[in-house]
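pasting for ref
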Amino acid sequence: MDDFYVMVVLYAKPGREAELREKLRAVVTPSRRDAGNLRYEMFEQQDDPRRFIFVEHWESPAAQEAHHTQTGHIRRFQEEGSDAVESVELFYRMKLVT
């Protein structure tokens, strides 16, 4: 099985966490409909509202790559929402061990 997981942590610029939250929320529902998506969840750190965490599960690396590079909702975020991101703290590609 080629399925795999992705964890991404984004950190909002100071004072722009509400803006980033809304722009990130806008990608969740369409991402869940992307071909090959098995799970797509967005979290906010309880003690730091500037930190957003995504946990994703995909049928294959190719499906995740297509989501990240070819979908309109992700392109739109990259063009219109990414300026509210101070940093991408981590981007892990993982496989389930047990």
